[in-house]
Every structure is written in C-alpha cells, then in structure tokens.
Amino acid sequence: MLLLNKKLYTLLAEVLAIAPTDITDETSPENTPSWDSFNGLMVAAELEKAGGVQFTMADVVSVKKVGDIKKILDKYQVRYEC
C-alpha cells in the first residue's frame, strides 16, 4: 500500500498534535513534547492501519525519530513519496 509522505506527516501531526509542516526526518520524542510513550504506540497503531501491516515490538521500540519510521515502512514495503 502506498502511504504518501503527506499522509504520513498528517497522521503524525494528528497523533502528536503538531503542524505537519513542523515534521522532519529528525522529529523525535527528544524535540517533540507530545511524543510520549502512549502517543508513540498510537503512532504505531495508526501506521499499521494506514499501511496494512503489523509491526513487531522490536520495530516499535527502535523508533527514535521520523526517519526511523520511514526505514521501518520500507522494511514492510509500505511506500511513501517524498
């Protein structure tokens, strides 16, 4: 399933309550106060629904920033456009 970059950023923005334009590959819990452990799990759940995949717990805990999310989506062949 194709997950467009805009859709990815919109999904992240909705869960994290930030503007999509504030999201970069370096956006992380370190620089985004609303990205706590609960919202991290919400991001994973929403991405699973949108991408039609199921992540492992190792996938979920390995995410340190948005760039990591893109790598995991690549692993499951969920494509997004830049």
Spans where pLDDT lies below 50 across 5 or more residues: none
Rg of Cα set: 11 Å
Number of domains: 1
Shape: globular
Provide the CATH topology.
Non-ribosomal Peptide Synthetase Peptidyl Carrier Protein, Chain A
Sheet/helix structural class? mainly alpha
Q: What is the share of helical residues?
A: 40-55%
If classified by CATH, what would the architecture be?
Orthogonal Bundle
- For the record, the CATH class is Mainly Alpha
Beta fraction: under 5%
| N/C terminus separation | 15 Å
Q: Could you tell me the mean pLDDT?
A: 90
Largest sheet: none
Helix count equals: 4
Q: Give the topology string: H per helix, E per strand.
A: HHHH
What does this structure look like?
By secondary structure, this protein is mainly α. The chain has a single domain, classed as Non-ribosomal Peptide Synthetase Peptidyl Carrier Protein, Chain A. Helices cover 52% and strands 0% of the residues. It has helices at 5-16, 37-51, 57-62, 66-75.
Present the secondary structure layout.
Layout: H1 5-16, H2 37-51, H3 57-62, H4 66-75
Helix pairs in contact: 1-2
Compose a concise summary of this entry.
By secondary structure, this protein is mainly α. Helix content is about 50%, strand content about 0%.
State the main characteristics:
Non-ribosomal Peptide Synthetase Peptidyl Carrier Protein, Chain A; 82 residues; mainly alpha; 4 helices
